[in-house]
TrEMBL record:
The gene is Fopnl. It comes from Heterocephalus glaber (Naked mole rat). Involved in the biogenesis of cilia. Required for the recruitment of PLK1 to centrosomes and S phase progression. This is Centrosomal protein 20. PROSITE patterns: LISH (PS50896). Belongs to the CEP43 family. The keyword Cytoplasm applies. It is found in: Cytoplasm, Cytoskeleton, Cilium basal body; Cytoplasm, Cytoskeleton, Microtubule organizing center, Centrosome, Centriolar satellite; Cytoplasm, Cytoskeleton, Microtubule organizing center, Centrosome, Centriole; Cytoplasmic granule. GO terms for cellular component: centriolar satellite; centriole; ciliary basal body; motile cilium. Keywords: Cell projection, Cilium biogenesis/degradation, Cytoplasm, Cytoskeleton. Residues 49-100 form the FGFR1 oncogene partner (FOP) N-terminal dimerisation domain.
């Protein structure tokens, strides 16, 4: 019969392999940040440059499926919840888009 320690280890390994444990940790972290966030303290306004930089970071995080990390970025930075239009970003950054895979 398996011991409690062995059962815990198997359960932890299973949750890690399925990616559930990472999502739970990220979600808990995000909720802690939200709970600690002081709404009374006003955030500095986002400069145009920081708005663009944050949007690029958000795109990177969402591309790599770091959705909870992206939600913390949005909450802490004051970035608009609705992503900026991709064509707007391309124009602002003087970039071009590869048509076959939608990368800049």
């Amino acid at each position: 019969m398996a011991t409690v320690t062995e059962l815990k280890a198997v359960l932890k390994d299973t949750l890690e392999k399925k990616g559930v444990l990472g999502h739970l940790k990220a979600r808990i972290r995000a909720e802690i940040f939200n709970a600690l966030d002081d709404d009374r303290e006003p955030r500095p306004s986002l400069s145009h440059e920081n708005l663009l930089i944050n949007e690029l970071i958000r795109e990177y995080l969402e591309f790599n499926k770091y959705k909870y990390t992206a939600s913390v970025l949005i909450a802490e930075s004051g970035q608009p919840v609705v992503p900026l239009d991709r064509q707007f970003l391309i124009r602002e950054l003087n970039a071009f888009e590869e048509s076959k895979d939608n990368t800049m």
